Amino acid sequence: MTFSTEEEQLVKFKQDEVAQHYFEVLRTLVSKKSIFAQQIGLQDVAAYLGEIFANVGAEVTIDETYKAPFVIAKFKSPNPDAKTIIFYNHYDTVPADNDQLWTDDPFKLTVRKGYMYGRGVDDDKGHITARLTAVRKYIREIGELPVNITFIIEGAEESASTDLEKYLEKYAERLLPAELLIWEQGVKNNLGQLEITGGNKGIITFDLSVSSAEVDIHSKYGAVVESATWYLLNAISSMRADDGQILIDGIYDKILAPNERELDLVERFALENSDGLRRVYGLKLPVLKKERRQFLKTYFFEPALSIEGISSGYQGQGVKTILPASASAKMEMRLVPGLSPRYVFDKINTHLRRHGFEHVKVTFTLGEESYRSDMSAPAILNVIDLAKTFYKAGVSVLPTAAGTGPMYTVYQALGVPMLAFGLGNPHSRDHGGDENVSLADYYRHIELIKELIRSYE
User: Which Gene Ontology cellular component annotation is one that this UniProt entry carries (predicted)?
Assistant: First the structure.
């Protein structure tokens, strides 16, 4: 089996008329800000995508019922018995504000040394244009599609997919039946393997706040008066043990344990380990799980309670001897199958009251449930086999990722086998400065999607 080198991929990409056309489309997409959190550009980008798809014969629906328009683009096969592949993507991005370091304007696609840079080139606009390129190349070079192709593109993924379940409920009958749903994105790992994943963790985020007095108190009373800060810290500490185990009653009772195939996939393919994290992040504190099997089981299959940030008291120059009257914290818990955000929220409230922290106010901010697959569906196995012919180092097949997305929402609505893979790399820096994608990886993804379409002939 012969595999193309990075240089050969770059040559093919530059000589490919269709790929170059949609690369210019991507350039325009990157230039158009579409940020749900700031309510910027959502209608404009949805309309632009609708125009791009309609111009090449797709049946396009743009639904603007909610804050972020929902885009559906359907390419139909002339075969009445053709199966259907769905691509799930999103056109919204996170911001690229002054708190991040970019070499160039983040909303201007730039190319340097075989990589493209810009907000959304990996997460997730680049996947939209790469997959559309594959569809157009197949039609131009081979002819009519042997499989129906449907793109569903939302505009609020970076904000917990607000209203996605309403759109899916509305259009489920038009999207089904389907053979397979290909998720938004994925990466080639440090070994050069294409990571193919079948799920993601869920999440609940919530705020904790305490008000202990009408005003800050002179700290001379610190021996006899409780401060909001100490009260909040003690409340938070009551919820987690030193080894990371969550101490909230009922959390572990509901967890759906991984099956043998899911455990085996993680044991065979997962690369994450404590030493690697130490190198990447320069860790100075001990890791919570060091032994590999326990590390992987905890990382992929167990919930995690984390503090996103704490705010209280005086932080200015010098000192200000006070007992703060207020304290707050932003918290999150990553969820696994069996745990719903509302169930966890109720357990958190019950825990705090039971342990004497009734003065802590708990505010729900967002939540998504988790989804996991053992990757044994025939349509998924077909993708795995095809991917092995494009990546010299092979594939890494994992039943879930540790990150969060709306896979559960989509699966509940459509019930279609799902998997994620894409064109990113370990240093694509999604959500960070200089977000990037290798042009060779971009073109390899196009080729793989085109070959997937061909497999349905």
Answer: cytosol
